[in-house]
Amino acid sequence: MSNPGGSGTPSFEADIRPLFRELDRESMMETFDLWAFEDVRDNAEDILTVLESGTMPCDEPWAKDRIETFRSWVEAGSPP
Fold first, then answer.
1. Distance of CA 40 to the CA centre of its chain
2. Which pTM does this prediction carry?
3. What are 58-68's pLDDT values in tens digits?
4. Residues 6 or more apart whose Cβ sits within 8 Å of residue 25
């Protein structure tokens, strides 16, 4: 996780966008773009819910540390 300004808060470009693979992006393109900051920010709570439930991505659940990075980003207000 990056540490901009020493805050420890994840950023979208450095920490969140790289969590999503091309396959994940392609699977969701009809709904929103997982590589677009605004789309992920606007859907962050719903994305977090399905990540925590283990239903996204469809091939295998994320590891807990990846979910925690995403959760930290959401709780920090989803910064760019």
1. 7
2. 0.87
3. 899 999 999 99
4. 33, 34, 35
